[in-house]
Amino acid sequence: MNQQQALYKYCVGLGDDALIQSYRLSEWCRNAPILEEDLALTNFALDMTGRAQVLLSYAGKVEGAGRTDDDLAYRRAERQFYNHLIMELPNGDFAFTMARLLFTATYEYYFFTELKNSADHDLAAVAAKTVKEVKYHMAHATDWVLRLGDGTEESHNRMQKAVNELWMYTHELFATDPDVAMLRDGNIAVDLAVVKSAWLQFISRTLTEATLAVPADGYQQTGGAAGIHTEHMGHILSEMQYLQRAYPDATW
Amino acid sequence: MSVYSKEDVLRILSVIPDPEIPVVNISEMGMLRDVLISDQGYEIIITPTYSGCPAMGLIEHDIRMTLEASGVFPVTVKLVQDPAWTTDWMSDEAKDKLTKYGIAPPLHSSCSNDVFGQNVIACPRCKSTSTILLSRFGSTACKSLYKCNNCKEPFEYFKCH
Lengths: 252, 161
Hints:
CATH superfamily of the largest domain in chain B: Fe-S cluster assembly (FSCA)
Structural class of chain B: alpha/beta
Low-confidence stretches of chain B: none
Distance between the termini of chain A: 37 Å
Number of helices of chain A: 11
Oligomer: heterodimer
Mean pLDDT of chain A: 96
Number of helices of chain B: 3
């Protein structure tokens, strides 16, 4: 992979994380436990869709084959999506959604804080904007994890179960490969070791404060970077891409 | 070839309201960044408040229509992400208008501590500082929902960004 191809894949991966996570949060629309929560989750989803749009547009520009953000979102097959697996997992109960949001938003907060210093001007610009937005996602998820973890017996048990189930998907967020290493050497990509240590510190502190146990590291699931997904991804795409597949080039 | 100066164009554009908060215009909100005039025409540089701001398409449309109606063309509208929009760019005039409209204006901006921290937000109606956060998100992503303990009215606060 040359630098251009590596950068394309890097941007697509970041765009896919935002797009797929947004899709999952949108599923809470009109299903959230209270109206304020409905507004919060859909607002997060909107932030993420906006981020996906900018990143996929830029990926198309880097690729240089004339593909737009819409082409990339709606015309790629499952194996060409590079999001982390944690983004595509079904929402589960509210505890699961909040535990996931805590893990992903904390990761994104530290990741994009680092990416602000990227030598790639476009990525640095997206990062500066994203940090402002994910700060709110992170604060919101933190509030809920504390409230449910240190809540009733049932809310505590559900939150602990969610944390335990999600743990094996978290290490993938910090996995690197030769292509990312090449971009990092060019000061374009983020040093994930830095992100991981900040993430682990914040998450451990938050879980402990929420009277939850930090799970022990066991088997770690990976695959997103290679385009190998969980069984849930195909179902997301079949719905998300339906219109453009059924009516190619349809516009408003 | 340009008949209109940058100042002319900015003045014409200052009538365009923010689609979600119509008491302030896009210039006061800091979304209108620049006007570049060349032989090719007029290029209007705008920036979104939030990445997913659903109003950008409408704003772009409004800019074209407003300028064309005033005889300013050809017009291109360019959306830039950098530098990222901040509530620092809102004029004092805009903040006054927001308050009169019933929205508490952003305290200050680029503030990293207002997410986890406890800021005192004064009620835009009765000015009481005895207020409580109901929800971090209101009718739009840029606002959160508060309640005033004094006059008992709910109100929105335009968050620092």
